[in-house]
Amino acid sequence: MPDPVRFDDLRVVMFIPEDTDDTVADAVRAALDEPTFLDSFERTIREFIATFPALAVLSVTLEP
To answer: Which range of residues forms the domain containing residue 51?
Structure first.
């Protein structure tokens, strides 16, 4: 099987309000740092991509 070629990039940027309480911000950071979050996010993207037959040839990876 030939090496894959990067076809396109999609960037997701997450924002939190400046005045968010530190405790809440810490909880958000902890949730985003959980390995299960990234795994679940990647799985969700793959499932969504699979709903478009023309995209079946694509593979998806997330780069934290």
So the answer is: 22-55
Number of domains in the chain: 1
pLDDT digits (tens, 9 = 90+) for 10-54: 888 999 999 999 999 999 999 999 989 999 999 999 999 999 999
Per-residue pLDDT at 4 exceeds 90: no
3-state secondary structure labels for all residues of 1-64: CCCCCCCCCCCCCCCCCCCCCHHHHHHHHHHHHCHHHHHHHHHHHHHHHCCCHHHCCCCCCCCC
In a domain, 3, yes or no: no
